[in-house]
Amino acid sequence: MTAGTMQNTEAGELGLHIAARTVVGRCPAPLNAVEVAVVLETCGYTAKRARALGSDGLNALAERVFALVPLYSSASSRHALAPVALRSRPPGPLDLARGLAYSSPWLVSLATLLISGVSFWSSNIAIPSIADAVTLATAVALLVTGPFIQAFGRRASFYIGLGDQGMLVRITRWTLELGLVATAMAGVALYLLRNGVLHAGTPATARLGLAAAISIAALQLGLAAFYVRRAFLSIGVIVGGGAAVLMWFVSHTGTYTDPTVLIVWQIRLVAVMAAMCWVASAWWLLRVDSSAPAELWRPSGSALLRAVAPYGLYGLAFFAIVVLPQLVSGGLLEGRYSFNAPFAMTSGVAIVVLVPLLAQTVAATEHLLARQFPAWLSRFTVAQTDEFRQKVLRYWREQLMVLGGLAVLAGGAVIVGAPRLGATFPILEDLARHPGLLSACTVGYLFLGVGLFCSQLLFSLSAPMPPLAAAWAGLGALAAASAGAAWAGPTVSAVAGLVAGAGVYACVAVGVAHRAFTRADLTYYRTL
Amino acid sequence: MKIYLSTEGTYPFVLGGVSTWVDMLVHGLPQHDFEIGALVDNPHHRIQYRPPPNVTLQPIPLWGLELAEEYLPRRHGWRRALRTSSPVVRDHFLPAWEHLVECLAAPEADPRALGDSLSALTHFAERYDLRRALGDAAAWALLLDRLQANPIHARTGLAPAMDFARTMYRYLLPLTAPTPVCDVVHSSAAAPCALPAIVAKYRYGTPLVLTEHGIYLRERLLAMSTEPFGTKVLFANFYRAVVELTYREADVLTPVCGYNAGWEEALGVDPQRIRVIHNGVDPARVDVWPEPVGPPTVGFVGRIDPLKDILTLIQAFARVRRVIRDARLRLWGPPTSPSYLTQCQIAVRELGLTDAVTFEGPTNDIAAAYGASHVIGLSSISEAFPYTAVEAMLAARPIVATGVGGVAEALGPAQCRGTEMVVEPGDPGAMAEALLAVLGASAVERGHLGAWLRNRALMLFTAQRMFDGYDDVYRGLFDARTSEAPGSGDATHSSATDLSPVSDRAMAHAAS
């Protein structure tokens, strides 16, 4: 071999090592020579250059370079194998506070009630026919809007995740406007039934009930668009503004407030707040950027309906569990309805226990999906699936215990503390006369809160069928218990239904959630 | 004839070379009806090209939907969902799923096994709900089991493994797209968009044409080059298997350049099934301008993009400027990467070329851009068969270009004063030498070179020639099908693959 040949050989070898180093710099762990050839090409290696390096062509060069890759890629390829764990802090007080933001309209309403003795649509009105009408209106509004709000929430979140403002606007119009139309039709049906068939109340109270149903539904639906966009400040401004107006009105009517005038004012206020929500949605919240890609064609309505139906049906059952005891307490099982003031008052106070439970639900749900799951999935390997499952199960139990602790605190505060507040807040002074009723309603709503917690966690993992089954099982138990206790009177029947229904809902929900978290990898995988 | 043409991420939603090709094809062959199955990432796109009357469009979004029936015209989805019980999944889905998973998790992806499993999954998806089946506990358990049994995949993170499994549902969605009865199916890539075309072949025996504009496997490997090894194996196996399946089932492959044909042969395709049909340009769209008056100007028309390697062109121009003091470099085109544009601008400054180099920005009048240049420079490090080169040839402008992709095929043995116009990529010296040869020549010599290039383009790279080529392929397949029993594309096709699998050495190294 001549000196020149040796030099050429050495230059070729050096060139190969340079090529290998170049490849590893672009591709730390090439799979095979094909990938090496691809990378070499993008680095400017051609057949001519390959021949200069002593290979027949680029593929032949790639084979030789691939053989040298382990010399340069050892550390980087091992590093690339190990999963990089993300960190996640557990939910804290700030998360709970953010969770409370979801209940801001409720909290504002409660504050207004305690301070001024009135609320946005208080049913505790001196005139029974008005009380009946408003209660029935509220029931209709919640029952009809519940499914639409749940379906809207699901699909709107989907499009927000995709960044598709155009479809978000469309789905808002399809579901929320349809919900309003449906509620209006249900309200008209109720109006015709009470006024035309049953002749219950006066035509004026029937019209009042219709107006109340539509206003309450409009506000519920209007706020839904703000909730999915997490626009809590806007919610606070609208609802707080309404509360301020209401308190101003009450403070300026003198020592006596005509209940009829008051309820009309309340309904008008609700309608105005609803209108503000819809206008704000149309003008600001749901504006479509004209430069954004236009959606090419619309999804099939029937397929969309199939996708959101489980959520809608869950909403129907859930709100039925909330609303039906009110109606049963008024004599629904006897084919009539008369406002049951003690039950309405105690249940209206007991339901406050849902506030901290809802806050914990929101905090845990957001934490789980946005932070915790990605952190665990990044930490564990396929071989460590069992450890992953155990980790998730431990987390689930911890959250359940936190929820249980909150439930005990909230329940105790309501059962023990609320009746004692009668001296400070006159609206609560009758509570002390119904301790058993208050306790039973409190327990019922605590069950509801537990069931809601489990359901929302499963919804966040796109698993709607187990919560759906739990809610309908609860509704069935409510109906059965109410019917079974009908002999003891409407109040006992309503309480039995509430406790049994919410209890079964909670038990089934805990059971299915436990099953889902036992197989957390499968549950998460199924969010296809 | 009725042609089913499948595209992926291109026509009619995205501007680009493949979209331009489809648009030209459907306009240039008005005698045929085209049904275009357009795979897109999501259903929220603007139409960039207006389809002519002989085209019907069926977009197939892979993401942005929960149920396939939201955007695919499939009826009775609820019935399919109700029918898909756990026993049905166990008996009819799991066997095919198991084959598919084993294909993908193994070091070598057998295209025949993949084809069989995809065929079985297609039959399943006709009657049952694919999403429900994939979401079944048994399907996940089987996938997990296969991954855990493999020492490489067992060390993969749960996140990428789950991402892979969920992505499979999206990639298998095209199997649920309705495929019409047609005379020929034509896929624009050996990619998931080919799956509906393959389904049509399985179902109706329709002949399949494959046109590769870029080598899909090559592009996917590049995109995944920095992914962790375990993840890359899974996805690379899937893409490789789809590519090999498409190669196996295609009756005719019509790559747009010989460079692509070379890759296809290297990946195991029988050369007898390959027929190169170069992209063409309508000469009437490109005016021939007289040589500009003024300082010697090098022009570039294209994206300011790392793959175009503008930095090498700038460095080459710097050497030209040392010899020809009043030379200019004009760069037309939009920047795709702000950081790369900044790099180019810094290079211009550091080389003292700020008074000689201009970034002209995007232009719609490419003829004017060519007309303003004495020579066109193309310094790409990666190309398929660039329209830019053909357009410059039709404009009768001399071109100096790097010999990547199909560029050498386009320019042929073009020379100026004994210097070849095709140079090595990444070599500013060679590029400068060629540019100097052209700019140093007389106007008459440049005119002769330009005329030679234009004649070459008129002979080989016109739009009509391209249309005739595809029409010939379609008619040939149609006539063969109607006169003989349709072939299934198995025994006569090359089944062996020269793709080197994930080598034992690499697997052992990664597992250590």
Q: Kindly provide the radius of gyration of chain A, computed on alpha-carbon positions and rounded to a whole number of angstroms.
A: 31 Å
Q: What amount of the residues of chain A lies in strands?
A: under 5%
Shape annotation of chain B: elongated
Major sheet details of chain B: 6 strands, parallel
Helix content of chain B: 40-55%
What is the distance, rounded to the nearest whole angstrom, between the alpha carbons of the first and last residues of chain A?
64 Å
Number of helices of chain A: 19
Give the N-terminus to C-terminus distance of chain B in angstroms.
Answer: 57 Å
Secondary structure category of chain A: mainly alpha
Q: What fraction of residues of chain B sit in β-strands? A: 5-15%
The major β-sheet of chain A equals:
none
What does this structure look like?
The complex is a heterodimer of chains A (528) and B (512). Chain A is mostly helical and 528 residues long. Chain A has 19 helices and no strands. The longest helix of chain A is centred in the C-terminal third of the chain and has 36 residues, at 385-420. Helices cover 78% and strands 0% of the residues of chain A. Chain A has 3 domains: 3-80; 117-298, no CATH class; 332-528, no CATH class. The longest helix of chain B has 21 residues, at 229-249. Chain B contains 20 helices and 14 strands. In chain B, α4 packs across α10 (229-249), α12 packs across α17 (428-440) and α15 packs across α18 (443-460). In chain B, a hairpin with a 2-residue loop joins β12 (415-416) and β13. Chain B has helices at 17-28, 77-83, 86-105, 111-127, 130-134, 137-149, 158-172, 194-204, 216-223, 229-249, 258-266, 310-323, 338-350, 366-371, 387-394, 407-411, 428-440, 443-460, 463-483, 504-511; strands spanning 2-8, 33-40, 55-61, 184-187, 208-210, 252-253, 297-301, 328-332, 357-361, 375-378, 399-402, 415-416, 419-420, 422-423. With 512 residues, chain B is of the alpha/beta class. In chain B, strands 3-2-1-4-5-6 form a 6-stranded parallel sheet. Residues 486-512 of chain B have low confidence and may be disordered. Helices cover 48% and strands 12% of the residues of chain B. At the A-B interface, α2, α4, α12, α14 and α19 of A face α2, α6, α7, α9 and α10 of B.
